[in-house]
Amino acid sequence: MNFKTRICQNCKKNFLIESDDFSFYEKLKVPAPTWCSHCRFIRKLTFINQRSLYKRVCGNCNASIISMYHPDIPIPIWCIKCYISDAWDARDFGIEYNFSRPFFEQFKELKYSTPHRALDQNEKNGIGCEYSNLCYTSKDVYLSFNIGGSEHIKYSSYVFKRNKNCLDSLMIAANDEDTNWRDQTLIIIRLF
């Protein structure tokens, strides 16, 4: 099998490009990568913020809120109640597309003028989820991320399906075959 070794422009380590990859790049009419797969992956995820939280003010009701957007970013941030309300229409923030201007320039203008949800949560969360992101239909979640249908979760990530009392956990899901889930409490503590 033919392959080429290249040096990553970012981390300066060697990486391989196989012959099948070159034929794929030719088919798409794109140049071969100059960054290794790990550095490309990091670059793709730079826009995602799941774990950093900041104090902000809701751009609609002026309430003090917690947001995943840094205060220096000039994007209008709204609290979840304002964002999901029917009192506004997202079409009011639409702009006319100008074919003579670059697309991404116009996309940036649209992004920086349209309200954004402070945290990626839904209105079905119970109390105590103000300091969590990507949290859905949960209750009493603190500094935890990617939580769904669970309660009393602290310092954890990726906890789903009716879990309770998880502390410092990673990737926890209840067994779907478990019929007595209401009677059970899952306690997982990762010790260092």
Looking at this protein, list some descriptive labels.
192 residues, alpha/beta, six-stranded parallel β-sheet, two-stranded antiparallel sheet, 4 helices, 12 strands, 17% helix, flat, disordered C terminus
Structure description:
The chain is of the alpha/beta class and 192 residues long. It has 4 helices and 12 strands; from the N terminus they run ββααβββααβββββββ. The strands form 4 sheets. Strands 7, 8, 9, 10, 11 and 12 form a 6-stranded parallel sheet that branches. The longest helix has 10 residues, at 19-28.
Tally of DSSP β-strands? 12
Annotation field: number of helices: 4
- pLDDT < 50 stretches: 179-192
How many angstroms separate the termini? 45 Å
Indicate the structural class: alpha/beta
- Helix percent reads 10-25%
Strand portion: 25-35%
The description of the largest β-sheet is: 6 strands, parallel
| H-E order | EEHHEEEHHEEEEEEE
Helices and strands, with pairings:
Blueprint: E1 3-7, E2 14-18, H1 19-28, H2 37-44, E3 54-57, E4 64-67, E5 77-78, H3 80-84, H4 103-111, E6 116-117, E7 131-136, E8 139-148, E9 151-154, E10 157-160, E11 164-167, E12 170-173
Parallel strand pairs: 5-6, 7-8, 8-9, 8-10, 9-11, 10-12
Antiparallel strand pairs: 1-2, 3-4
